[in-house]
From TrEMBL:
PANTHER family: CIS-3-ALKYL-4-ALKYLOXETAN-2-ONE DECARBOXYLASE (PTHR43798:SF24), MONOACYLGLYCEROL LIPASE (PTHR43798). The lineage of its organism: Bacteria, Pseudomonadati, Bacteroidota, Cytophagia, Cytophagales. Pfam families: Abhydrolase_1. Residues 34-273 form the AB hydrolase-1 domain. One of its GO terms (molecular function) is hydrolase activity. Keywords: Hydrolase. This is Alpha/beta fold hydrolase. It comes from the Bacteria.
Length: 298
């Protein structure tokens, strides 16, 4: 049952649910073809990918979940909301869908969630598309000092500072760069945070993003398993939440990466440049398919 605030013209997808121990996790599964799995960050939801899905589902199978606590998924009280728990939920969804040759499309906090899966199942992930994401233990020192409490840098500090503000203030500040964001669209992000009580649970996720260095460290130690996966990096250079230094780290991290900067865009490229992103993603996926076919041919 979709909530009454949801505009079905903006988000015209059939809702699907996977029952998890934590609650019902909502996702959409649209189109047919090579699978592209989209993972959102915090505190947004699959609505962020709606325009990408509308374009890409004509040639691809597009899957986008709402993490527990976000969007149309349940918002249970007392659940951990730790990144490790979100990653475990995502793995259950992938197991449920039984996908092969996946392109992971990650953004923001969705990157470590997606990479945790790719590290465990590198044979299932053929390519990665990354939009502005932070870098867990890819920080300059690559070690955990007192300052690594804010491993997520400006994004972590920002979310921490907003734990007690209203949902509309939070979304207003988050989408500060998106001056053209229409009010009805903004409301979809505000309303999806639920009641003030729900919000406490959702924003607990922001609180959990820091201080979980052990998990990030575990991912970092296994990094070699994903460094050779071909990766397309799309980066909004006006991002106030994630500094440009993170992009430099990612460029060094992946052995085969293609970087496309968006000079006049901020943190939410999906809202600003959906058509352009969809074209880049489609071309990249097609090129990777051709490359694999050539290798198999010879």
């Amino acid at each position: 049952m979709k909530p009454d605030w949801l505009d079905r013209k903006e988000y015209p997808f059939k809702s699907k649910y996977l029952q998890l121990e934590a609650g019902r996790m909502h996702y959409v599964d649209e189109g047919e073809g090579p699978p592209i799995v989209m993972i959102h960050g915090t505190p947004v939801w699959s609505f962020l990918y709606r325009n990408l899905i509308k374009i890409l589902r004509k040639k691809y199978r597009c899957i986008a979940m709402d993490m527990i606590g976000f969007g149309l998924s349940d918002k249970p009280e007392g659940w951990s909301y730790k990144p490790r728990a979100h990653a475990a939920n995502f793995e259950q969804l992938m197991e449920h869908l039984q996908l092969e040759d996946v392109t992971l499309l990650v953004h923001d906090f969705g990157a470590p969630i997606g990479f945790a899966y790719a590290i465990r199942h590198p044979e299932k992930v053929r390519s990665i598309v990354m939009l502005n994401s932070w870098t867990w233990s890819l920080s300059k020192h690559q070690s955990f000092s007192a300052t690594s409490k804010y491993l997520v840098g400006p994004l972590g500090k920002f979310l921490h500072s907003k734990l007690n503000v209203s949902a509309d203030t939070l979304i207003q500040d988050l989408f500060e760069d998106e001056e053209q964001l229409p009010e009805p669209i903004r409301q979809h992000y505000i309303k999806a945070l639920g009641s003030p009580n729900d919000r406490v649970s959702t924003l607990a996720c922001a609180r959990e993003l820091v201080g979980v260095t052990r998990w990030y460290d575990e991912l970092w130690k296994e990094r070699r398993k994903i460094q050779d996966i071909p990766t397309l990096i799309l980066w909004g250079e006006r991002d106030k939440l994630i500094h440009i230094e993170a992009l430099q780290c990612w460029k060094k991290f992946f052995h085969e990466s293609y970087v496309i900067p968006f000079e006049n865009s901020g943190h939410f490229l999906q809202e600003e440049s959906a058509e352009e992103i969809a074209n880049y993603v489609s071309n990249f996926v097609q090129e990777e398919i051709k490359k694999r076919e050539l290798v198999h041919h010879y």
